[in-house]
Amino acid sequence: MDKEKVKKIVLDIIAEIAPDEDLTDVKSEIRLRDQLDLDSMDFLDIVMELRKQHGIEVPEAEYRQLESLDSSAEYLFPKFEAKAVA
Amino acid sequence: MPEARRTSEALDGHHFEVVVIGAGMAGLASALRLAMFGKSVLLLEKHYVVGGLNSFFARGGRKFDVGLHAVTNFPPNGSAKVSPLIRLCRQLRIPFEELALSPQSFSRVAFPDVDLRFDNEFSFFLSEVERLFPREQDRFQKLLRTMEAFDAYSPEVAGDVSARSILGEHLQEPLLIEILLCPTCYYGSAVENDIDFASFVMLFDAIFRQGLARPLDGIRRFLDPILKRYEELGGKRRMNLGVKRIFTKNDKVERLELDNGESIFADHVISTCGVVETEQMLSSASADVKTDDIGRISILESIAVFKEQPADFGWEETIVFYNDADFFRYERPYELTDPRSGVICIPNNYRYPEGEQMPEGQLRVTCLANYDKWVALDENNYRLQKEICRKAMLDVALGYLPNGKSIGKDLEERTELLDIFSPRTITKFTGHLDGALYGSPRKSRDGSTPFGNLYLAGADQGYVGIVGAMLGGVAIANNRILRGD
User: Fold this and answer.
1) How confident is the model at residue B361 (pLDDT cuts 50, 70, 90)?
2) Closest C-alpha among B116, B129, B127, B123 to residue B79
3) What is the interface pTM, i.e. ipTM, of the complex?
4) Is B96 on the interface with A (CB under 8 A)?
5) CA-to-CA distance for B181 and B30, rounded, in angstroms?
6) Which domain-ending residue is among B148, B180, B208?
7) Strands B263-271 and B454-456, how do they pair?
8) Are residues B149 and B272 in the same domain?
9) Residue B1 banded pLDDT, cuts 50, 70, 90
10) Pairs across A and B, CB distance < 8 A
């Protein structure tokens, strides 16, 4: 697992919940909301899918850590690592 | 909750994480959302079909939709993402294409001396307003800006601001105000002679800014994929089984008693029965219902089926909202029905894919009706009055269609099948007291009740239309149960 893989996981989830979005040119450092048409319901789905598919918990107060792919990778990477060790 | 406990509860069949009461559009949408994320869900429906007001029925070998005239919020060309319908498809993971929606031809709002046309291009609607009310241009633009700045979908929005008064503050020609109120009230107002401003904005956008559409197969195009997904995910559903009592203890729902005497336990309960209807089920309910809170808007709808396509008569329009006076009365009539105003729907006139069409012509006419008067009739008189009122309604409605009066003369002989549903039918399908089409004037936008684990969804959330009802159900599932879980 590395941070690029974490970004890929998040992008795959977005592809699943918003199949009408074009994800070919998503910039890692830019807020997802600023380049894609995602709202708070979609972000809830990203959180719900992280839990369902990967057993990763994101408390509501920390949803904003997922605002870009870079911030998602920073925030989620240790959680994936902890999961791998456990 | 530990996995093992959840499984044993589901097997037990009497304890669920969530019980959803009512399999109408809101109930179905919330149940599916919860099942998608592994909740054990039981969906209870009193009737023998799903869909609630947007259900379907069979007569004479034909299938009819109960409530569906038009699916609103059809995304306009090139700006698909702005529509709440696209949001809904994402949330339910149902591809938009699967709904197979076909856009309307055009529709009309017909008042004496004014006939405003609109289709799914908002610019056409704007040009019609400009053509008919040239002096209102600047004021109308200002109204549009007020509406754009208003977040009608916000759970915190005030639900009791009068649209009539806000329109009055912006516009000077009373007729334009009535023309804007007529379609929006008919498609979703639970209050008489007005509509709350949030619902007005939602419906204005849903009807004019976005647009009208329908699947060739009708409402089952929505219901079937939802049910299929829900069942694939292991969601449970029991039909012909209502809730008799909701037992509460210490500000929480403890247990549901079903009509057959069974007890069901739930961590969360979502009731789509309506605000007053739900209160009446509470074990703590006081005997006297606040009748002010029961909705007064109900309808009579007639469906005529004939061999010809309506376009053969020169009837090309999809929906006509009509009113015979300069003032639009939207209230419970004194008589059984009030034929002076209503809605015509010609479902054949959606632009279905090349070579596809409904096999027979259909003309649906809806007028406001008085529930109490319809309930007071004995069976013979009920049948007789349905026929008398149908004829009176049709007579007026035909006057709003091209050559309608002359074509109408022998329409009776051409008619293959007639069906009518009354306020009594609405109560049968929806369980709403008084056949209230859009529920109670008292809305609970965020679904909250005095009980911590009981939430309202559906008509009495105040999200309007099929898309609104379903998004409301989704919002309750998301905000009350999934978020922060």
Assistant:
1) very high
2) B123
3) 0.89
4) yes
5) 30
6) B208
7) parallel
8) no
9) very low
10) 32
Q: Of B175, B208, B241, which residue sits at a domain end?
A: B208
Query: Is it the case that residue B4 has pLDDT exceeding 80?
Result: no
Tokens of B382: 């009920």
Q: Are B268 and B33 in contact (CB under 8 A)?
A: no
- A17 and B474 within 8 Å at the Cβ level: the answer is no
- Per-residue pLDDT for B91 more than 70? yes
**Looking at the 3D structure of chain A, how many domains does it have?**
1
> Do B158 and B183 fall into the same domain?
yes
Q: How many domains does chain B have?
A: 3
Q: What residues does B306 pair with on adjacent strands?
A: B361, B415
Domain with B237 in it? 3-57+220-293+440-482
B66 φ, ψ (degrees, to nearest 5): -75, -65
Give the separation between CA B251 and CA B92, rounded to whole angstroms: 32
Look at A20 and B86 and tell me if their CB atoms are within 8 Å.
yes
Residue B455, both tokens: 């939430």
| pLDDT more than 70, % of chain A | 99
Supply B122's token pair: 């908002």
Within 8 A by CB and 6+ apart from B127, the residues are none
| Residue A18 distance to chain B (closest CA, Å) | 6
Cross-chain Cβ contact B81/A41 below 8 Å: no
Tokens linked to A71? 């911030």
Q: What is the CATH number of the domain that holds A24?
A: 1.10.1200.10
3-state secondary structure at position B467: helix
CA dist B143 → A47, B100, B122 (Å): 38, 34, 15
Secondary element (H or E) of residue B92: helix B84-92
Instruction: Please give the Cα distance from B404 to B346 (Å, whole number).
Output: 13
Contact (CB<8Å) A20/B478: no
CA distance B216 to B276: 36
Q: How far is A2 from chain B (nearest CA, A)?
A: 27
* CB within 8 Å: A42 and B90: yes
